[in-house]
Design brief:
Layout lengths: L1 H43 L15 H6 L4 H18 L11 H18 L11 H10 L6 H20 L6
Bound molecules: 2-acetamido-2-deoxy-beta-D-glucopyranose.
Length: 169
């Protein structure tokens, strides 16, 4: 009984160490690369970013408040990317973006999200302000303009998160 208990314990410790290390490795070796890639695809998939204002204020304070807290940075990054993947859901018939670049953009973003998942406990809930912001942005009418606004806001967030990459490891 004692032996089984200790083995289970060692096994659990190894598992938890491994997931933490996978996460660090991902951030160190891949995060910045993928971030650069989806930012460039987002630019290339359509024309110029719209000058129209989004119907909701960018949650600038959330980003400013982070300072140098590494864990918080990773959590905010994870939640924001999750919300962005949810934004790009639904009827996209109105947009004339490059389909292949759009698909690549979404696939790479999804890959980033899946890998960051191992860094963040499911108990970490997104900030209410962040959720509220994305909820408002998501009340879109699926028109070409609405999608362009979403593209603009997405770029703003992903640029913000790109700046964090040096802080996350
Ligand atoms: C749809 O949303 C866009 C962006 O917010 C807005 O410019 C446009 O007027 C809306 N169109 C309709 C039909 O509501």
């Amino acid at each position: 009984m004692y032996t089984i208990g200790s083995w289970t314990c060692i096994f659990l410790i190894i598992c938890s160490m491994q997931s933490v290390c996978n996460c660090c490795d991902w951030i160190r070796h891949h995060y910045g690369h993928l971030s650069a890639e989806y930012l460039s695809l987002l630019d290339q998939m359509g024309g110029d970013i719209t000058e129209q204002e989004a119907p909701v204020f960018f949650p600038e304070l959330l980003y400013r408040r982070i300072d140098d807290a590494k864990v918080k940075t990773i959590i905010l990054t994870f939640h924001t990317i999750y919300q962005i993947t949810k934004l790009f859901d639904g009827n996209m018939k109105a947009v004339i973006w490059d389909k292949k670049k759009l698909d690549d953009f979404l696939n790479i973003l999804e890959r980033q999200f899946e890998n960051l998942k191992s860094c963040v406990s499911p108990a970490e809930k997104p900030e209410r302000r962040l959720k509220r912001y994305f909820k408002k942005l998501n009340r879109k009418n699926y028109s070409a303009q609405a999608w362009e606004l979403i593209r603009k806001e997405t770029k703003h967030h992903l640029q913000r998160l790109d700046i964090f990459k040096a802080k996350m490891h």
